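Session log. Operator J.P. requested a structure for one protein chain; no other inputs attached. Running the standard single-chain path with token output.
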Amino acid sequence: MKVLLTATVQSHICQFHKPLVEILHEQGCEVHVAAKDNLAEKNGLVLDFVEKVYNVPFARSPKNLDNLKAYYQLKRIIEEERYDIIHCNTPMGGIVTRLAARKVRRNGTKVYYTAHGFHFYQGAPKKNWIVFYPVERLFSKITDKIITITSEDYRFAQEKFHCKIERIHGVGVDEKRYFSVEEDKKQKLRVQMGFNDNQKLILCIGELLPNKNQMMAIKVIQNVVKKYPTAILLLAGNGPEKEHLELEIANCGMQEHVKLLGYVTNLQDYQQIERVTKLINEATIIYVFADGINEQVGHEFKYMMARIGKAVDGVISKESRVSFAKDKDEQWLEVDLGKVENISHFVIN
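Structure written below.
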């Protein structure tokens, strides 16, 4: 059996699909990947666990004409390779792939789409509902099965869409990498990485994009350092907003308090030494079960969110939730990190 996995970028396949590929190989499947090659930006990631990789120029923006090029290239690949199953991921990867697979689907190829999180959800911007909802509903007619992760997506898709709907309960956590450590080991690791015992370290995880909202974190740290003068904000990730963020950091005079880590392959080390993980971006809502909340739960550390939305599925202990209005800078500025450390989870609605 031949299986094709598609996504907007190859790093998505590297980060989230290796366990799936291992299962497919155990079942005797040949696995190919079609996605844009962005691995040069993701030091340490190698897509070497599939039989064939196609570099297809998908783009995240629906307006980008590269998606038209991707459509024709992918259509040719699909018709030449004659796959038994096509499994697509990410919004534009899913749309372009399902368009390109219409002919082969009529001939028996099964087309699956995993919704890591629909862009339309309770509280989402109206433009998301106007653009993404009708498209996803229409495209469900040319999909054999949609796999959802959050309960909200599952219930909504079952009611509104035109294909079979399944749900998986997250992608899980690698417990060999993400686990809690004793306090003495944590302190030693802090010293090894250049931090002192009493520093407040805030870790913000996510690609450097406008919708990931690292700008809010930079605003927040300006207030935090008034009470905790040695506090440091660690921004883990890379992306096109890097220069913009660097300029903002310089303009605010926060060079000593904000560190751009880039794309790190030892994220577990930073998560073992930080005090609070600050998840304040759209990715927290959309890709809630990816490398973020679950890994923090695995570490038994504290995390903060700008807004729950679908992420409520990822909150394990609701007894200690603290709620704030969503995305209000002034309310983030009132956060007392000392209080955060005394509760299990710090959640901002």
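Operator note: The CA atoms of residues 204 and 235 lie 5 Å apart.
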